[in-house]
Design goal:
The protein contains 14 helices and 15 strands. Strand 1, helix 1 and strand 2 form a beta-alpha-beta unit. Helix 9 crosses helix 10. It is 33% helix and 19% strand. The structure holds nicotinamide-adenine-dinucleotide (NAD). Belongs to the glucose-6-phosphate dehydrogenase family.
Length: 484
């Protein structure tokens, strides 16, 4: 079965910060794949807008190199790359000044969707929004896309929301969390809400606990001094892990539609209980061989910032009362692996004599590597020898059955950008969600700062500090293995 490509209207997509790392590594190679898939109608264009002084030809050269460096298999299609590059324009622009704005206004086409990707530091959002308005480039139909970090606490997030709201309606603002663009995350909703089988068991009567792990193998080297002001809580938990938790825990929305879904996510965040200090474990990676320690990477010998965090959270509502949600994320861990696991309760009673293994159903949603969903079920081990039970994974992704090879699964960024062009906000965060997430996060951070909490050291290549293992062991549970 060939995957269906849904056409989009013609568009002008302006990428502020079009020469930056994110644009070259993710956005432009992703847009090239959408071009190949036939999702760039003939008059559609991508306009790079950044500080560097160059012309359209120079920009095309830069993006040719970016596709060669960061593209997948499609980077061999040189004719197609050249055809794609003809869709690119460039304007040298100063977000804080007046230079380039008249050129951009003139370049924009009429009667196409206008989208503006703010792939620049958040300190420039206000200046961009204002100039788009003053120069009459972005009217009420225009859309803007903003990147993380969306604030570093409740106050700064509020300020950003207010700044954007001066010139744009909430329905025009697309706050990206690329975790929501992942195929598997969307499939989680399809599996959960498209089958009779799961929803009746999706509660504290049947679920023992939920684990969410986002493990990385890289350290913070290269962006250490930036990361040191943020840490794992701000960089990963407040946004990505929180979004995953919301999708798992939310009530079924009445429709798969932006505000219906976002209302339900918001209710989850608001129902999150404060986390007790002894349910939070923060860590920092040590040095290994000639690899630097976190503090060396961060160029801050006295840093108390966490490169790892594990925590046990509770959601105070009828569905989840008593069900712990264990979250963990960190740098320099054993493998690059992200997974949500819904661990069901043990069977109350086993009828199989001599079967001592503790069988449990586990629904695991893997975001990376090898995106997929499977359900651990218990069956009889085939062959003679009596009733020996064995746990096996039941693949719920059926990638092969649907003819979707791993390579064809589009990247989260390109998928989300196409949603922007279609005007579909379902997989983007609403302003009140982001604020609610900070409202929950802020007191936890303030708490450990006030206590001068020192992160526990952990060995690079491990699963994090020992205390994180204890967080679950104390409850008679264990983390799932981090494996790539
Ligand atoms: P970068 O430093 O590589 O690029 C910044 C871009 O902004 C450049 O194109 C630069 O020309 C432009 N710029 C800077 N000042 C400007 C001005 N006054 N006027 C016009 N243009 C100006 O940054 P990046 O890594 O591409 O990140 C961009 C944004 O995306 C940041 O907010 C970052 O936090 C966020 N982000 C980046 C990544 C990533 O993987 N790089 C991931 C998630 C979020």
């Amino acid at each position: 079965m060939v995957s269906r490509v849904i056409p989009v209207d013609p568009f002008d997509l302006v990428i502020f910060g079009g020469t930056g790392d994110l644009a070259r590594r993710k956005i432009l190679p992703g847009l090239f794949r959408r071009f190949l898939a036939g999702q760039m109608p003939p008059s559609s264009r991508i306009i790079g807008a950044a500080r560097s002084d160059m012309d359209a030809e120079g920009y095309r050269g830069m993006i040719r190199e970016a596709i060669a460096e960061f593209g997948g298999d499609e980077r061999d299609q040189s004719d197609q790359i050249e055809a794609f590059l003809t869709r690119l324009e460039y304007v040298a622009i100063d977000a804080m000044g007046d230079g380039g704005w008249a050129d951009l206004a003139e370049l924009m086409q009429r009667d196409v969707v206008r989208a503006f990707y703010f792939s620049v530091a958040p300190s420039l959002f206000g200046a961009l929004a204002e100039r788009l308005h003053v120069h009459k480039i972005a009217g009420p139909q225009a859309r803007i896309v903003v990147e993380k970090p969306f604030g570093r606490d409740l106050d700064t997030a509020r300020e950003l929301n207010q700044t954007l709201a001066e010139h744009f309606d909430e329905s025009q603002i697309y706050r990206i969390d690329h975790y929501l663009g992942k195929e598997t995350v969307q499939n989680l909703m399809a599996v959960r809400f498209g089958n009779m089988l799961f929803e009746p068991l999706w509660n504290n009567h049947y679920v023992d606990h939920i684990q969410i792990t986002v493990a990385e193998t890289v350290g913070v080297g290269g962006r250490g001094s930036y990361y040191d002001k943020s840490g794992a809580m701000r960089d990963m938990v407040q946004n990505h892990l929180m979004q995953l938790l919301c999708l798992i825990a939310m009530e079924p929305p009445s429709r798969f539609e932006a505000d219906a879904l976002r209302d339900e996510k918001l209710k989850v965040i608001r129902a999150l209980e404060p986390v007790a200090p002894h349910h939070i474990v923060r860590g920092q990676y040590e040095a290994r061989g000639d690899e630097p320690s976190y503090r060396e990477d961060a160029e801050n010998p006295k840093s108390f910032t966490e490169s790892f965090i594990a925590m046990k959270c509770h959601i105070a509502n009828w569905r989840w009362a008593g069900v712990p949600f264990y979250l963990r994320t960190g740098k320099k861990l054993r493998a690059r692996s992200s997974e949500i696991a819904v661990v069901y309760k043990d069977l109350g009673h086993s009828i199989f004599e001599g079967d001592e293994a503790r069988h449990r159903n586990i629904l695991s949603i893997r975001l990376q590597p090898n995106e997929g969903i499977d359900m651990q079920v218990t069956i009889k081990e085939p062959g003679p020898g009596g009733m020996r039970l064995v746990d096996v994974p039941l693949d719920l992704t059926f990638a092969e059955a649907l003819g979707e090879s791993g390579h064809e699964i589009s990247d989260a960024y390109e998928r989300l950008i196409m949603d922007v062009i279609r005007g579909n906000q379902t997989l983007f965060m609403r302003g009140d969600e982001v604020e609610a997430a900070w409202r929950w996060t802020d007191p936890l951070i303030e708490g450990w700062e006030a206590r001068n909490d020192v992160p526990k050291l952990y060995e690079p290549g491990s699963s994090g500090p020992e205390d994180a293992l204890m967080l679950m062991h104390r409850d008679g549970r264990r983390w799932r293995e981090i494996k790539g």
